[in-house]
Amino acid sequence: MMPSPTEPAVGTPGFTERRRYPRVRGSHIDVSVPSVSAVEVLEISTSGALLSTETPLKVGQRAHLRTLLSREPFSAWIEVIRVTEGTAAGNVKRHHFGVVFTSMDENSRKLLQRFAGI
Questions:
Q1: 84 DSSP β-pair partners
Q2: Which of 83, 37, 35 is nearest to 60 (CA)?
């Protein structure tokens, strides 16, 4: 809401704060916006995977990977540890990401072990 021309501007004499709680600067707050991307799993092991996608990611970024392994749901948190140029077909440029699994539930861990033949 914009102040009316008769109201004093923030920080000027005569300004009255109407908020119940004061605001603080958010200079050291990171915000992420969840998004869904199509990802191809090129290789997978019990410790990580090699993924291919059009979505650019950076080393250190974290994401939630959800897919099906042997028609069963698999879910794990991942961290990107390596980025390389993937393939390019026409205007579509894909990136390859080496990721490590940082967290997964027990059902996903057991499913991954069965899938990997361990």
A1: 96
A2: 83
Joined together, the tokens standing for residue 59 give 């080393």
- Residues 9-38, mean pLDDT to the nearest whole number: 78
Rg (CA), the chain: 23
d(CA 98, CA 51): 7
Alpha carbons 68 and 75: distance in angstroms, whole number: 9
In the block, tokens 């794990």 appear at 76
Digit-coded pLDDT (tens) for 34-49: 778 889 999 999 999 9
Instruction: For the chain, list the domains and their CATH numbers.
Output: 39-115 (2.40.10.220)
72-85 tens-digit pLDDT: 999 999 999 999 98
**Is the distance from CB of 65 to CB of 48 less than 8 angstroms?**
no
For 4, the token pair is: 């009316």
Residue by residue, DSSP assigns 44-91 as: E-SSEEEEEESS---TT-EEEEEEEETTEEEEEEEEEEEEEEEEEETT
